[in-house]
């Protein structure tokens, strides 16, 4: 028995899922698979192609600081929350989701582990329990204060559809991507700056500070007019963060409409506006990403591009003509290599189904 969970891309709605905002992601056709079987002895064993094997004692479930924490966290919460005794298990992990590319490989392994292990021990969890559980692993065990987007879409994805999610109410709807002449692609910059999770958590704290100083419970209670009237209560960084959250929510609503009506030009413009906001107001881009976004927008068959994911490197999502081949980006690849002495990686991605169990 095994579980398979997909990574994701987020068309638009970045750094707002932990701010009661709107998001527009889709699950991709790249997955992590976790296969579970009974093991002998007193140890759980995790085996992964490319990462070797690791064992840990069944009654010593502590954070180790590497990728296996996503699985160990599953054991920790299953034993503490559900008071389960889990006999020694062998877990085989395989994935074709690029690591560190902002495609949410972490949520995929969390979701696949939860589904595979809980099913093996006879615990039935519904979809909401699975994605809430996975977020808790990330927040409380791994220590990244992420919002719900990655875990949600890994569970709830649907073939050929994006998902519009209101992260305050958790109401969602599937959105058709009615773009007849274009599709979404990913460029992994191959740059991963060390700011990482610490900077991510800092921005979340800055957003929380905005609400506290303005006596608001949620950004959904805040408008641009109110922000401008009371900006003297905030420092410059907090004003920038708030501007991004408020404007990004507006862009998500506009992008949903653009996708449904097939307005490729508008969808591309919104991607570009989102990148500018993430670069200038949320300050989570970097020189290499900004170079790639600027150069992509000089190409006639590209409609728009933006940084995607936590930031400080990682990937770009861009909208371009149908059936784009990597060779058509060779001039950009050469310019990038010349300027930054590294290559990018190009991926075609398609909206796909969420996590599933297999016998």
Could you explain the architecture of this structure?
By secondary structure, the chain is of the alpha+beta class. The protein folds into 2 domains: 2-175, Ribosomal Protein S5, domain 2, CATH 3.30.230; 178-348, 2-Layer Sandwich (Alpha-Beta Plaits). It has 10 helices and 13 strands. The chain has helices at residues 69-81, 105-120, 127-142, 149-156, 196-213, 224-229, 236-261, 264-280, 287-296, 330-340; strands at residues 2-10, 22-23, 25-38, 43-48, 52-57, 89-95, 161-166, 171-176, 182-192, 302-308, 313-321, 345-348, 356-358. The strands form 3 sheets. A 6-stranded mixed sheet has the order 5-4-6-3-1-13. Strands 10-11-9-12 form a 4-stranded antiparallel sheet. The protein has a 3-stranded antiparallel sheet with strand order 2-7-8, with helices on both faces. A hairpin with a 4-residue loop joins strand 10 and strand 11. Helix 2 (105-120) crosses helix 4. The longest helix is centred in the last third of the chain and has 26 residues, at 236-261. It is globular and about 60 Å long. 46% of the residues are buried. The mean pLDDT is 94.
| Structure classification | alpha+beta
What gross morphology would you assign? globular
Please tally the helical runs, counting DSSP H or I stretches of 4 or more residues. Answer: 10
Average pLDDT confidence is 94
Share of residues in strands: 25-35%
The helix-strand sequence is EEEEEHEHHHEEEHHHHHEEHEE
